Amino acid sequence: MAHSRARLASLFICALHLKATGILEMSMHNCRRQLQVLVRGDILLGGLFPVHEAGLNGSECGLLKAAQGVQRLQAMLFALEAVNADNTVLPGIALGAQILDTCSVDSHALEQTLVFIKTMMSSGDGIICMDGSRPTYSEQPVAAVIGAASSQVSVMVASMLQLFKVIF
């Protein structure tokens, strides 16, 4: 019992740190809370992890999955930090990440995948506005996506991302 309380306390402190440094962003989409971890960088990697369990009604996220979901999220952030700290790995290039929660639901994982695809489609490449100008869009598309905790979800997500030439 004390071990689980200590784990929850460390997760809470980690979340506060991420929020204070501007890495953790929470936003509202479709009347649902969407947890997103965003780390700015020259190249953006996407992440799909089951940070929460499936909710009781199937549409909302449930309880936090500290052992599986949060640890995967932390591992990706740690790897990003390690690569960015070593100037010999990618000299002059900083890796960033946009990590989304699948809530351990297949359909929600696909819905989150659409966030990555929508950003790619809206990035303005090859699009010209009616007045002849190029569109301005502040969102950065992901170069590759890491994640999906199960093979079934991975196959569905990979099939969708393959259509848009995103590495999974």
TrEMBL record:
Domain Receptor ligand binding region: from-to ranges: 72-167
Topology class, membrane: Multi-pass membrane protein
Entry keyword set: Glycoprotein, Membrane, Receptor, Signal, Transmembrane, Transmembrane helix
Keyword Transmembrane among record annotations: yes
Transmembrane segments: none
Coarse class of the protein's main subcellular location: membrane
Subcellular location: Membrane
Pfam families linked: ANF_receptor
One GO cellular component term: membrane
An MF annotation (GO) of this entry: G protein-coupled receptor activity
Keyword Signal: yes
Segment forming the signal sequence: 1-22
The name this protein goes by in its record: ANF_receptor domain-containing protein
Phylogenetic classification of the source organism: Eukaryota, Metazoa, Ecdysozoa, Nematoda, Chromadorea
